[in-house]
Fold each of these.
Amino acid sequence: MDTADAERDYERTAAPGRAALAAGRFEEAARLLGAAVHLRPDRAAAHVELADALRGLGRAGMARRAYARALAVDPSCAAAAAGLDGMDRGRQERENFRVGQRLASQRHIGHWTVLDVRRGGFGVVYVVRASDTGARKVLKTYDTRLLWSDEDRARFEREALTWVRLRPHPHVAPAEHVEWIEGLPCVVTEYAEGGDLARRLAAGALPPADALRFARHLCDGLSHGHDQLGLVHRDVKPANCLLTGDGTLRVTDFGLARAFDSAGADLPGLGELPAAAQALYTTVAGTPRYMAPEQYAPGTVLDTRADVYAYGVVLLQMVTGVLPPAGVSARAYVERTTRRRTRRTPLYRLIRACTEPDRENRPPDFAAVRELLDAAYRHVLGRPAPAPPETARLTAEEYVSRAVGLIHLDRFGEALEEAADGLRAAGRDGDGDVVHAKLWQVRGMALGRLRRGEEALAAYDRAVELNPREPSAWLNRGNQFHARERHEDALECYDRALEIRPDIGNVWGSKADVLGKLKRFEEAEEAASRAVALRPRDPNLLVIRALLRGKQYRHAEALEDFERALAVEPRSALALANRGNTLLLLSRPAEALDSLLRAEELEPDDPNTACNLTLAAYRLERYEQARASCEKALRLCGETAELLVHKGLIHAELHGHDEAELACYESAVAAAEQDDAWRATAWGRKGAALLALERPEEALACYDESLRIQPDRPWLREGRQAALERLGRAEA
């Protein structure tokens, strides 16, 4: 089908779809506009119109995916951006980062400053500068406007892990490490001084020597990913081909296309859409004009040949300066636009072979592509093509980055292995004490996460011995002491770090936490405030200060810090749970319940959250909800006196006073053997229940026992007086 035919068929299908949309017939509109997307998947407007129809049907998840697909086709599509923003107004949990924003880094002592923001479909790319080194890097993460689920985040981490595991190669852009920044998982990669291939191709076709050089680089980089880890890139295109300052092409984004896979998202009703439209929103997020035909077929298992197809399209674009028009396959375009003699040349035979519609007819892998490319190279340039480069050996510094990335992905055993390999490499290459110290430090970090505390401390000892001027080693050593409740040793480490670098917010935060444990609240407050001043958007530091203020009964100030932390990271279970507890202490149970329920969604088995949910629901007289939370808390925490007392109170509200209620208080008395406050409470509650059951003599004995433990509680005295009155022995 030629371009005119494709456009004609598209308009015939889209026009009644638009009319149905305007009339509010959303099911009909979705069906017709889905068919239009099938005909012109390269048109951003087609995806926007389908998104509008899906939105009208209430399929919010699928509508977001359609808007995102429009942005993948055309990142400047204002209608798609407005559609996403309009859907999420009032619901958006957080925003993307902004130019000029300072981001707290887990890896670096300082921070990242955002220099540029580039959106593309499902993901966002940030060009950043490190404050401690001045180096430019790139952060890759997802677009928060899509409100990704925890499952999406986990998938992003898994796929980023494949890129981190990929061994160095001259034509693969390395994923240096992965870290969480303000609650978002980010892949940290190199910054390409030469931009990308898409920018070069904007000026038209490349000279033959440049086209063939980049073709070799791209072929060898993709071959490395496929051969080492069996990776299918899935989104090979010029924008994912970075250029270094010396003109070397390096493939980027290995694994990330699959990370943006939308499978499983809001699928009900998709059967009404054409298969190709379904595939666009339920399979890999490739870029339509480079996607192999099989990528449009739902459920197809992709292999290397999908990347071979995209490679052929990129090669065609480098040679001719244009992409095949929408609706025209690359193979058909070559056949139609080149002379018969040209089509017989090795270069065009390679392009035609790679872009065969049937994948069985394409080269099976990039080794076969390289053979065809070498023949084309000899024919065009009159000399043999250079041999593929050897896979580079990892340096000790690269082992450090890989190990840190694996630690951030909770792959502690693998990180330990990388640190060991790095130490061997450092010995082999004659690296100095500074590099050895970094490797011992990451070894300590991995051992600490594996709960091998003594070994971790020994590793940190070696790190600070080799490089006593590295503040992060002292910080990590102090954190290990802190975890083992050796607080004075921890403080000594933090002070050593601050002697070297007094501007490290994380060290001040850790010091504040330890001082709080030692009840040195004035010093702790000063340290926490220093930490927050240095890293005002670090939610962990804000939570540390909030908890300190809570311990001093400064609940209103603590609440302010929890709110600030949640403004940065709305999905922080720790901040949500402690905010809920603080709201309870401020007698705001309805708000507390909302915050605690959100915390429970994120951390369903947190015992403190279950306990506080019990209190909030009880105070709001939601007794069934309180009962369920109380039972859950008892399972998670065991039979504490506080929970048993509340179990009795809730039972009384639901079933009246009876022996089951009394049994709860008896158990609470036993559980509170070492806690006078709750033992007195349990006796008092039992007394109140007995009084309600018209057993005043027994009630009086309970009140007497409770007052013997804590004689200054007014409600116990009032209860005792009521028991005496029932017995006719009222005291003056």
Note: The two ends are 103 Å apart (CA to CA).
Amino acid sequence: MPQSNMPQNTDKKLQLILCWHMHQPDYREYLHHGYVLPWTYLHAMKDYTDMVYHLEQHPKAKAVVNFVPILVEQLHDYEQQFKSGHIRDALLRMLCHEHLDELGDEARQHILDSCFKSNHTKMLKPYRAYQHLFDLQALMDGHGRENVTYLSGQYLADLLVWYHLVWMGESIRRSSETVARLMTKGSQFTFAERKELFDLIGTTIANIVPRYRKLAELGQIEISSTPYNHPIMPLLLDFAAARESEPNALLPQSAQYPGGLSRLHSHLSNAVASHKQNFGAAPHGMWPSEGGVSRATLKVLAEHGCEWTATGQAVLANSLLREMNDYPLPGSSGYLYKPYLVETGGKPIYCFFRDDHLSDKVGFEYAKWKGDDAAADFVHQLEEILRNSPGADDPVVTVILDGENAWEYYPYNAYYFLSELYAKLENHPDIRTTTFHECVRGLDGQDACVTPSKLQQLVAGSWVYGTFSTWIGSPDKNRGWDLLCDAKRSYDIVMASGRLNEEEMRLATEQLADCEGSDWFWWFGDYNSALSVASFDSLFRRNLSNLYHLLKLRAPEELQHVLSVGSGAPAMGGTMRRSEVV
């Protein structure tokens, strides 16, 4: 295990900003008001609740938690579903369906298709009763899926219970008598027991936003935001932004996204309003969707009151290369570990750049380690950064990653890693956890220990490879953009025609905003898994078709045909990507 070799009498400290990004796209189907995929509520009961638990257990550890507004909206939606008893998520509804023997073949197949979607190594194999259900399903598949008719209601009940048990956060498993009792029982779950589990899920989801808000009010965390439906801001403004980091990138046939600036202002205005309503104040800053930045987007962010933003390390390296004609050496650190002030033509904005290496270690490597060893290595890496940092200024290390998708690959949902990490950080004499807002506020103080640099050039890019290749540039991604541009032009014509009433205009605009999210383009590509690509391809085309329907237009025939087909096996199922090509 790495040992600390930091001198204990130095006045210089390392300022660490941990930013956990919480994001799910909108999984609702607007015409029929149901949920197509269950990932929002599953991550709510597993990850959002565990992440706030660890912060509550370590009150001296600070962090930034970035909530995408469309995610918070869905959390509130689920809360209302539980209150009303009208459950619009099919999987959740079947958990509390009393007579499962009465389910038709389609519903039975939906349970089978859904209830084994998890990391089997960490979330299925450790549980003998759940593994037994999987073995029975595999046996049935071997004799043709039409045998779904012969599944008993008790099998379906046990499968639904186990799926929701393994998606429970570790903090709930260790504190809930209900969960412990059901896991011990293992099978033959009654309707009353299913309803008990269902009620626990509802209470868990309802408490998430209030728990984070309380920590923000105590000053332990900063809650930041993102444009409302998570669009790639630079691409909304100008497809050619992709060529700043990749000069030969192929672009869609459409020259521009129609009315992109107006749409970006809408996403940002709605995000600020949502943040005020949910967390009591406007956000001090925003993590731009996918870390996507350009000089034009920073100007718009500043116009909406953002004092800071952040993106990937490669964006800074590309920008310094253009500015100084000198690419930072791989072993150098001084350029990365400080904030930069970027002039926007209006109010300047501070820009932070993530340490890609450390962020990727948490996202992709530490899941393979023992929790205490991983935490010790992370702290050791920070100590080395501090020991090698030039000058008298405190180095500012920014670690930003998914706050939800990494943990299912860790033992026990990263319980031991996160517990050890926060414990080591809050008691370390030379490391100070802080937030973006605290750091920016300190820059204006007389005793500031950090000196920002000015960044004259800013090369547009994202936190993945420093480019936009994850979302644009391939034939299927570009075709998706062209279909969206066509729909947006139809939207503009209908909105100007006066044919829709106020409520119809509102629904069409909400559906358009969903179509503008980054996730659809993220999943297009043969390097992703076939199942994931199929799910998001179908939902994107359904969203566009629904938009045409809400505009009272016939949807193009092309939306009936698959755009993208996956055949890959990416790390972490494709939900996260490393910052660098490996």
Note: Residues 483 and 544 are 8 Å apart (CA to CA).
Amino acid sequence: MFKKILIANRGEIACRVIKSAQKLGIKTVAVYSDADRHALHVKMADEAVHIGPSPANQSYIVIDKIMDAVRQTGAEAVHPGYGFLSENMKFAEALEAAGVAFIGPPSGAIEAMGDKITSKKLAAEAGVSTVPGHMGLIADADEAVKIAAEIGYPVMLKASAGGGGKGMRIAWNDQEAREGFQSSKNEAAASFGDDRIFIEKFVTQPRHIEIQVLGDTHGNILWLNERECSIQRRNQKVIEEAPSPFLDAATRKAMGEQAVALARAVNYCSAGTVEFIVDGARNFYFLEMNTRLQVEHPVTELITGIDLVEQMIRVAAGETLTLTQDDIGINGWAIESRLYAEDPYRGFLPSIGRLTRYRPPAEMASEKRVVRNDTGVFEGGEISMFYDPMVAKLCTWAPDRTAAIVAMREALDEFEVEGIGHNIPFLSAVMDHERFMSGNITTAFIEEEYPDGFEGATLPDATLKRLAAATAAMHRVSEIRQARVSGRMNNHERRVGTDWVISLGGHDFSVSIRADHDGSDVEFADGVRHRVMSDWTPGQSLADLRIDGARLVAKVSQSATGFRLRHRGADLVVHVRTPRIFELSRHMLEKQAPDTSRLLLCPMPGLVVSIAVAVGDEVQDGQVLCTVEAMKMENVLRAEKKGKIAKINAKPGESLAVDDVIMEFE
């Protein structure tokens, strides 16, 4: 077994690999860029080597710099994680030439499967069902439009060396094919150093289901069941689960056997994933093979009990798999929610900044529930614009799917993140969505269920009443605290009111509260009564209450007129007023939002890639105005209506903050 390995990656996956290495008694080496000097993976490793400036193309994907770090530290093996150099054949060859083990598949398998065009041909030769498409290289946008029209819209433009949703675009017409081709090429070049693009038919209403494979260097290859990854946005997975709620045993077996056949065709070893598109009739088509560890590998680990990172290390050290296919079962159900630094209220655009608060739920494991959080950040750390926006992967396991969803709901309720925009509200809303709970999902779920973007969850009236009761009880505690601090009188409770109007979610609830030593009874005007019990005190940002014996967890911050509550995807401003003040408040004028209709505002922190118009230009609805890059993704900004450019305030190469004015219209 190795004595020291280097992790050629960063963030949560670097931390994840370090944990398995430590379990095996192996020393670890971290590498880091300028932006990651104080990162968690650097602190966790036994050694750390600085490899250059913040941009990945000047640090993490520069092979020579990684090789220098290997030589400096005497590492015997390198784990590439995912992304960066994980599927780079030249990197694997450089390690091999230096006599350093690559904790991954042979370079030949990376070459064959890492190139999506070659992999399609090999899959067909191995008897694997494939999606129709053009497997040749595409010279320019004109050729891309011609090929797309021949295949028939909609089509998917994909980076040949791509992964993680980078360099991927869906085109429904010639214009989108032309624009998507250039954006895909740019993203592919920036993320992978390879701008080759190919096109395939986009299967409508598809499910994205993948098979985990694991092989050793002695010819043993296993399939470790499937993962459902259909909840996606911008072709990037958001929620995954194992097993799939859609597959039956026969389809699962057929997909597994085809995945193994493909792996065997390229002499595969280590962990890898064969991805399929599955239609409503359970017909499945090969999508691609990822010759690396997948982001969503924890859900497979949770239902099989197999540490995939440990197995990768053992295989790289020449060990034989001790498992057989008969040993692989399905124990319970696991769900993974990817916590991203992105603002769901702004179309999931990236967000950067300092984590002023980062309090994940406590990890735990029992026979009935597991909570696991794979992360690479900490409170006080920064989310950089240079890398993928993932903050953490929150996973739950339970004996069945319903229980796993309940566990995820509660874990998300407890997860506190402040200082950046994040997608916890959206993840919570999905967990409560009837369609998700039923398992009736496709890769179009987000587009279909949130066509106008995510604006927060609408909670049922019964839930709003429970929150109103909770707010009344917390307000009473705050009033008592103020009475004690001010010393208004000894018997402070006589100074605390009992009748209030709680306004939240478009409702005004008149309540009366009566308290005893164990809790409070909150009665509504319609006679409904809730018993509230909690040890919440003013200043606590998480309220863990019992409403009629049932648990309710909400994120809480106090304001001059009440509270801000966040619960199950809803972000609520709550006003707590006396009946008299409530009546007077109804006569107050509402503050008007400023008019920004004549401004193009930067929707997220990013770098201006290009400006497509000039001062004086007449623009039409939908016309491209500029392109902004953030976290390795290009975002094309378009005109929302017809107008004339009056002023341009930004230029290519300039870094902008959220709501910076890019241009003005007459």
Note: The longest strand covers residues 221-233.
Amino acid sequence: MKLLFEIGMEENPARFLVNALNDLKNNLTKKLKDERIDFDSIKTFGTPRRLVILVEGLAEKQNDLNELNMGPAKRVAYGEDGMISKAGLGFAKSQGVEAKDLEIIDTPKGEYIAVRKFSEGVATKSLLSDILKNLVLELEFPKSMKWGDRKFRFARPIQWFLAVVDNELVKFEIEGIESGLESRGHRFFGQRFTVSSVDDYFAKIRENNVIIDIEERKRMIREMIDKNCTGENEVVLIHENLLNEVTNLVEYPYPIVGTFNSDFLEVPQEVLIISMEVHQRYFPILDKNGKLLPKFVVVRNGIEYSDKVKAGNEKVLSARLADARFFYQEDLKQPLVENVKKLETVVFQKDLGTIAAKMRRVLKVADSLIDTLGYQAEREDIQRTITLCKADLVTNMINEKEFTELQGLMGANYALKSGEKESVSLGIQEHYFPRFKGDNLPTTKEGIVTGICDRIDTLVGCLGVGIQVTGSKDPFALRRAALGIVNVIINSNLNLSLEALVDKSIEVLREDGVLKKDEAQLKKEVLEFLKQRVINVFTDLGYRRDIISAVVEKSWDNVIETKAEIEVLGEVVQEENFKKLIGIIKRVGNIVKDHKDIAISSDLFKEDAEKALYSYVEDLDKATEKLLSEKDYKGYLGAIVEGEEIINNYFNTVMINDKDDAIKNNRLSQMKRLDDIYEKMADLNCIEG
């Protein structure tokens, strides 16, 4: 059998559509399985006005129920007098049966009580009404509404239900809205229609100019833009997120090219693109060099070209761009630096003070970091970047909330127009990088230092005044701040200590008198927070999780050194000699996991293998210490591999658990010394295999 269910409604927000369809599919899948109804596949379709779900290969009837549910052992379920116990009665009650219905089942483990349940499956059609009704009532949205005198909530008012299995109606009703065999086509280019079967629906919905397949609508938009909307040396800028949104705003797409006055091009093109993409859901048109042209693509919800639609959208966009040009021209009437004093009135966080206060702290942390990194020649430009980097927050362009996505970029533009150095301008823009996963990373020393110091003040400051980060709550984007710090350090190959950076930030915040948390506890919390982000970054870079864990468990403070260790260890673990050694390393680690003493007495040696191991460990300890001090990680790993034969001989000839406790502990101490050498660079016990 085939089942088709359509929920028709007023236009649903585009952002709700995909999640709603996924929830419908998952919920229906669960309901059918719970009812023991087999099916071949479930597919979903959707437009702003409808949610559609199709089940193919639906079984005619439920599977028969034939279960044997085991309970406690007979000796627990019945007393010595043969009377049923509380445990037995409890099991019977949980199964919905009387004590007399319990069976005794003989198993390899003994006799157990059990309940056997059997019921013949009923016709699937008899169950579908309740299934579909509950499917609607249980569907949730980020925001729901009630309408009329109805009590149940939905994303938008429901207009109709179409429910058909093969060629029969599935009847149900929700607060006066009854299911039927009628659906509706495109609001402007379609009609109401009645279906006679599931297949009939798919034919008639298309005849009425509705493309219910989301991916098909998306392909149509791309193909029609490529065919009809681009001239020679032109390209339409199509971001996937915007394409997804536009696809879910229409039932039948028809792209139309519009134009705007080229005078607006005096405004930075990023501003114009934001106006088109974010505010109007238009696709900008660029030339082959990436320069914005005074043209755009609007996707109409219709089946044909319309001059009125074109003119209307051009008029709306011109008003938007006029606002942007006004903001831009007003902002250019004074130098960017004049905005800095306004930051004294902008609160960053109630306990941490204003943005101006924050940037004074950032300057102090940066002064220390400049010395650490050897950037003294750029000190003045870095300080100027920090002074100006938040000044665009109080400009008309950003402060009006229309173009908040352009923070940093507008500051960079205004800085250049104000006569600031190009390095300062670029640093203002880059200090926000990376803004999201996969984003650009800063290339200038000004952007690098400003970004790190701004983020560490945010991270330490927010945690220091008691702001908590949970799975769903991170109001100051502290995870993103920590990830940004780690990514910038790795990308810029900065040799610095995260602990020292945290210490300096705590010191500056202490001097500012804003901390509410014990400093030792705060430091521990911040470092643990950073450690998790270090692990996340290396995981995203594609390194093996076990290798990351092995290295990070020992040291992660200098992430550049950590990265080098992970890379070398990743190479060496593939070598056959090292694979053989892993077993020995794990054996040694298991032997000494509860032993701490490393004092060894050669007078207690009874076997030649003990003496050989002692000499080997002494030499290996000195050699590996030197290699690691020189950061020769490959040399260190090569050195520990060379002793495999000596250690195997020791295990083959020496019984560690000697009857004499002194000898036993001496041998454990030998193992502990060896284990300490194995763990100098990484916890090799973490390596899988």
Note: The longest strand covers residues 110-119.
